[in-house]
Amino acid sequence: MLNMLQRFFLLIVMVCVLAACRRGGEPALVLAVGGAPSELAFWEQVLADFSEQAGIRAELRRQPTDSDQRRQGLLIALKARQQDPDVFLMDVVWLSQFAASNWLYPLDDLAGADFDPSVFFTRVLNLVDRQSGALVALPVYIDGGLLYYRKDLLAEYGFSGPPRTWDELLEQGAKVQAGERSRNPGFWGFVWQGAQYEGLICNFLEFAASGGGGIYRDGGFILSSPANERALSLMRSLIHEKRISPPSTYTQMKEEDVRTTFQSGNALFERNWPYAWPLHQQDGSPVAGKTGIAALPHFPDGQPVSTLGGWHIGVSRYSDMPQQAWELVKYLTSHRVQKRMALELGWNPGRSDLYRDPQVLEEMPHFAELRSIFSYAEARPMLPYYSQISAIVQRHLNAALATRSRPEQALRAAQAEIERVTARYRIESEKSDHEFHERHEFFGEKN
Amino acid sequence: MKLTHDKRAAALFILPLLLTVGVFILVPVLGTVANSFLRDVTFLPERYIGLANYRALLNDGAFWQSLRFTCLFTLVSVPLELIFGMIFALILNQALPGRGVLRVAVLIPWAIPAAISGRAFELIYNYSYGLANYLLQNLGLADEPVNWLGTGWGAFFSLVVADGWKTTPFIAIILLAGLSAIPEELHQQARVDRAHFLQRFWRITLPLLKPVLVVALLFRTVQALRIFDVIFVLTGGGPGGATNALSLYGYQYFVSGDFGYGSAISVVLFALALVFALLYVRASRFQEEMR
Question: Using a CB-CB distance cutoff of 8 angstroms, which residues of chain A are in contact with residue B126?
């Protein structure tokens, strides 16, 4: 007769044996992705198809929807050099950090001769997916800021089309807002994202770079410049002088607040990402059929700019099966899967060839315009310490919008703070030592 | 012999608690302190850098702004919560009809997760469809909606109200427990001596409530110092960094992969809470000596 303790011991042994059996079985690829339930269901389906076709078992590691949490989940796994996940999706602004941390497998080493990178948006590949010369990721989903406008209202007030310059936007916005206010006191000319968060940087970059400004260029920060001052003054004047953007712009306006304001018929112009398009057009939306999209306006001496967003796929440096992982990356960025993604999820594929696909265009006619808007794509600074820069810039821009500081003052303060705070990350000689060391180790492992 | 056996048994009973405290509190705290002496950035080689993170904090304007906000928030919100909590507790301690229901009702805000009550307050403060502006305009108190979170002080007091709504019940319930432990005879006796309400409150209620009061204050002060959720939901640290609490500031560094600097911020926050806690403990000892 076994006593309690012995039974308990036996149980533990059995559990361990079972666990070992499971571990000892066929290893599986792990793809880490987060998102809405419908998106996760889509990934499950795609992975099942891949497993069947390629004969490689692939599993989904479900991540939360929130992008900060997704990033943290990856950070912890990679910092601990875990073998899983093998493949994961990254927000475009993480790419530099992941690459500089040497967490991404150089895809050039995995890709065979049959791989053709020209099917992707070349500008996007060059802006973000190539890090110090090496291809480290591929775009799965492309995002870019654009202008939504009310076709019906512009026609009613005698305007022939959407504004091309910021001055035209001011003129159209003021006129339509003044007229609409008699019917709808909560009507605004232009809604955009100005709260203290990442979205503010995306909006600022579009204003600034559409007139020669920006945040970072040729290895230096260029925040404190006349072009940026003009852009920030315009953003501020939209709220406080021209008053065609609500005062809540700098306190609560994020993507969804902006979208719902426009969608409920309370705005003429909206700056948002492409995700708002199908929502505006859905049944029961007050603006369905009345909405158009265009590139954002620019300053007379500039051209439109669309801040690049989106998700990119990469292979972990610590993956125990990189070659199979590459097969999965190839599959997920294939014409067939990207087309499914566009048709089933309404996502904007990273492959440019799909924007000419007749079937896709029939279902999603706005893809034709998106294609030209994405050609104005501008990336946020591709630096490993971008998050720190973003937090600083957000704070100072938001202070200027809240009239807590003057635009030139805010930009100067942001520039100074960036120089000071990021000094400790820019230890160039040490960094190249580190890279050399890691690369060395990396080749050692491969042999 | 028996005594040592008892002692050994007692030690055995305490051991799990000590282990739990050690594993879940001491180790993380010491780990964070150790981490704060490192350059622990994902894209740079890890290295011991002594006090460099703390020296960088000294020159970091945003850190000082966060520290100032966090202290100010604590020093304003905790006394306000104490006053209202005391009023609620005194009312609930009276023999009112439906007292049981009232006591439960008061506890409801405390039971709601802060992130959710933050969302609720977002709907109250919302510029275009918020409850506060709706009431203000329909009562004819304002022509234009107010942008509640739009100024530094506006955001500050909006947060104090949102946090106070949620945490006042905590103080009220703790004080209520203290109140019900005060013998009614003392009050009756004082009434015989014709002490009026305020005299009885100062001379009887408050002194006898002091030990409970210190506990409530200690808990609330430490919680207020590490406020996160409400700010994360309502202002995100805005406008212009005016409400960037220390915990939010540290979180930003953890998310972005600078664990050393984030740890240093956490250690400062921990030290701040520790100082407050020691002050309260001292205050309660002082109380014992008085007796």
Answer: 248, 252
Split into its structural domains, chain B has a count of 1
- What are the strands of the beta sheet with A188-191, ordered from one edge? A188-191, A267-272, A146-150, A291-294
Q: Are residue A228 and residue A160 in the same domain, yes or no?
A: yes
Contact across the interface for B151 and A402, Cβ inside 8 Å? yes
Mean pLDDT on B127-151:
90
Residue A120 CA, distance from chain mean position: 16
pLDDT tier for residue B102 given thresholds of 50, 70 and 90: confident
Per the document, the length of chain A is 447
Q: Which amino acid is at A187?
A: F
- The answer to the question of residue B222 being in a domain is yes
Range of the domain at B270: 36-290
CATH of the domain at A180: 3.40.190.10
HSE of A422 in the Cβ direction (CA atoms, 13 Å)? 22
Of the candidates A251, A266, A388, the beta carbon closest to that of B149 is on A251
Contacts of A384 in chain B (CB under 8 A): 42-43
Distances, alpha carbon B29 to alpha carbons A141, B38, B57, B258, B262, in Å: 40, 15, 19, 17, 13
CA B56 to mean position of chain CA atoms: 28
- Among A380, A424, A430, the strongest candidate for a mutation testing the B interface, having the largest count of B CBs within 10 A, is A424
* B3 within domain boundaries: no
Give the Cα separation of B202 and B194 in Å (integer).
14
Closest-CA residue to A87 (of A78, A97, A100) = A78
Max avg pLDDT among A25-29, B54-58, B141-145: B54-58
Domain assignment present for B101: yes
Give yes or no for residue A429 having a pLDDT over 80.
no
Q: Is A55 helix (H, G, I), strand (E, B) or coil?
A: coil
Residues 54-113 of A with CB under 8 A from B: 68, 71-72, 75, 78-79, 97, 100-103
Residues from chain B that touch A404, judged by Cβ atoms under 8 A, are 152, 239-240, 242
> Using an 8 Å Cβ cutoff, are A295 and A209 in contact?
no
Provide the domain limits for residue A345: 27-136+308-375
Min Cα–Cα distance to chain A from B128, Å: 7
What CATH number is associated with residue B192?
A: 1.10.3720.10
